[in-house]
Amino acid sequence: MATPLVEMVNIHKWFGSVHALKGVDFRVDRSEIVGLVGDNGAGKSTLIKILSGLIPPDEGKIFFEGKEVHFRSPKDPMKLGIETVYQDLMVVPYLNVYRNIFLGRELEKKVGPFKVLDIEKMKKEVERLLGDLGLRVASPDLPVEALSGGQRQAVVIARAMYFKTKLLILDEPTNNLSIKEARRVLDMVSALKRAGISCIFITHNLHHVYPVADRIVVLNRGVKIADLKKSETTVDEIEKLIVSA
Amino acid sequence: MFIYGIWVFVCAMEKNFGTSNEKKITRRDALSTAGKVAISAVVAGVVAGIGGYYAGSAVPAKTVTSISTKTVTKAATVTASPTTITKTVTTALAEFAKGLKFTYVTHGGEENVFWNTVHLGMKEAADVLGCDAVMIRPKVEGDLGMIMSNFETAIAENPDGIVATVCYEAELKMIKKATEAGIPVIVANIDAPDPEKRKEAGGLCFIGQNLEPAGYFLAKALSKYYPEGSHVLIIIEGPGMVWAEQRCHGIVRFLEEYGCTYDRLDVSFELAEVESRLSAYLEAHPPVEETKAIMSVGYTAPIAGKVLESMNVPPGKVAIGTFDIVPLVIDGIKSGYVQIALDQQPYLQGFLPIVQLALMKKYALGAWDVDTGHAIVDQSNVDIVADLSKKGYR
Amino acid sequence: MGFRELGITVLQKKEISVTMILVATVLVFYSIQPRFLSSLNVEVLLKITPELGIVALGVTMLMIGGEFDLSVGSVFGFAPLLMAVLLGSGVNTWISFAAVMVVCSLIGATQGLITVKTGIPSFITTLGGMLIWRGLALVITGGHPLYFTPSQDFTYIFTGKLFPFVYSQLIIFLGLLVILQFILERHKFGNWVYAVGGRRQAAEAMGISSGQVKIILFILCSVLAGLGGVIQSARMSQAMPNQGSGLEFDAIAAAVVGGTSLFGGVGTLIGTMLGEFLCRVIENGLIIIRAPSYYFRLYIGIVIIVAVIGNLYIQRRTVRMRVRK
User: Fold this and answer.
1) Is the ipTM of this complex over 0.90?
2) Contact (CB<8Å) C319/A143
3) Nearest by CB to C323, which of A74, A75, A138?
4) Which domain holds residue B325?
5) Mean pLDDT by 10 residues, chain B (394 residues)
6) For a tag on chain C, would you pick the N or C end, based on fewer CB atoms within 10 A?
7) Domain of C39, in residue numbers
8) For residues B220 and B198, what is the distance between their CA atoms, to the nearest angstrom?
């Protein structure tokens, strides 16, 4: 079998005395869409926060393309081509759309010996990007707090789409979206797979993830209780697994 | 003018009108928004201005109304009721210095009670003479930056005369600037360390307590109560400040003549601090056996009375002398712990400069120095002074 | 751009509220006493505002980044004292100045490191700093003011009169204002400052080290506070231990009036400059119209509230106006 894109082995995480992740193994192959499901408190968000570099694991290892990696800050996975759309949208409400999208990775141009923000370019890129994704936002100049929940979601997805190269992690991405918009996101995810980019898709909505996923991983109270190929299972079965655990 | 500007602005926005309902609402929003904020801004500004103006406007000449009552009683067999005839005599007080305005630039902070008495003197002089006087105090006591900018602004306002305290030598620059702008300046309360320099800068005279002689005077007056060769404690509430060091210098001069030894205790006007440091000192240098007298260059020596009381030392055993009249001092004298307080008569430091400036302006008379600083308050006159002090006059 | 577009853009500027109040106040004072705008008085205003304005710039940037520095007043007093001591021992003016600036940056770095590493709110760390640096100042001087006598050219460069109305400190202030505002608006560091103050988690999720950003801001704040103090002392030829007492609140008030949010993430330096001018205009104006100085606190309090309400109100309305377009 080919080396997986990402492999997390025996991940443990404690928050105080709460054992949030108990020796979880998690794997994503190239060009694969993995649905990560489970009830509240299962540890899904924690697992991917570790993969995004936000928090370190207490025990366990992470391998990327076969090599062991240690993420000290979110910048590390970003450098490797991993992008995350967080459940609590990590946007700065007072800043406008393009400043948020390019936060930390601003586009710059040279003016004499100084590097300044290339605002025109950032605006253009954002307009193009949003257009490509079919996501409507009135103007890239608007502060993000002026946008509706769905529009904000669109912005963070756009951000991840702009920078991703290898792996896209989506934590409840369709939560605030209209039916049309949710459909678009799912189409986008499928398109990614065709382009060779993998995706981890966390959601409560099994009906959303089931059609597009290749594999489904079920977590419960910090433990992985199922890791099934889509062909091996159905939505009902997965639901039963989650409920009965 | 300002409101007109806003109106034009809004009309300009209206030029771009559309027919859709949405746009109309937003236009109205804009109007109401801009209008509301503009109006509230103007109102705030106007309230500020007018309030201030009325607060500071010249006090009109006071009218004195005296009523003389004559009662006429007719005694007669016919029943008569006493008739009261009331004649009202109205006299307008002299409008001696009408139209003149003077500014008093001081270093005393707004919480400093001493300066309230000076302010009272200044106000009453202004009332009596029919002119306007205003006192400018820095937000933070003794902050040179604030004093200097207050002073400069006062000069820009171009009053008919300025009274200033020379808390820092740097203020002489401002006195010079005022004099060059044609504004006469009188120095009060604190003189420049070198009076000659003050005169050169244009400070015409000094009205206040001559600090060094005052220190000497206090120590000498108190010496009735402590023997030669005693050990004395001097409390310094403002170490490094001109007024404190000069008074101390005077005290020390007498003590050295009188063969005494002395210690300095550097504190502040923070009464709790004074109390704790005094206790510590008196523990180490016991009263009566060692420390026979305590003097302060400010008004905190009466705290020693409290400390002595808690050490079970009766009043009169240790001589205590202090400067300035504040309720603390009055209580100290009444209780018998404080023998002498030296009053620098802050009322005069407010009253006299205004009088002199008015005379200068009206009759081109010259200014003259006044030493306001040798009034002794002790057991013999404390009651009268206490009463006046309550009213803010002493 | 049509008028409507222009109108919205203007109203959307956070500084609009304070500008309107400033203009209104100036007009009111002028109408009561025309001497308010006499050349002499305008010069006074332009002379005293920069020293405090410089400090307010640093405080504002730190506030945008989501932290407070209550020690600026004490550093404002401590820096010139330190420099006076060095000058008194015969050290060259420029070397003393450089040394003092380095000390200020160390002060800022220390306060920043403690705040970032331990998680103690900056309010508390700098409150401690306020007492420590003021205490050090008193210990060094024993409460006595010190003479502050740098070399002639130093005094001239920092406080000299260049043209009528224009003193060097004004140029320095405006220069710093332009540079720092440019960084805030057009440089990626500025974006990071707004992000860290606006939502620290989001900034960190995008890989920005909020700790580093904040420490830099703390250093900037302390250095500017020291610079302001040195300039004032150069102007007065004295360094006093109680110099700058209460300055921290003055700076925060100017920032808030100018549209900076106490919660971080929002603010501009131009607004702070206007806020600082407004404070000085009120102070100065009350003296010019011969009002007792007690009124200053009252009016500044009213102005702060009116300005902040005005800011919020306009922001919300204009954002909605934009969106409806």
Assistant:
1) no
2) yes
3) A138
4) 212-343
5) 39 34 41 52 52 43 36 39 42 70 89 84 92 89 87 92 90 92 92 85 89 89 88 86 85 91 86 88 87 89 88 88 86 89 90 93 88 85 82 76
6) N
7) 3-324
8) 29
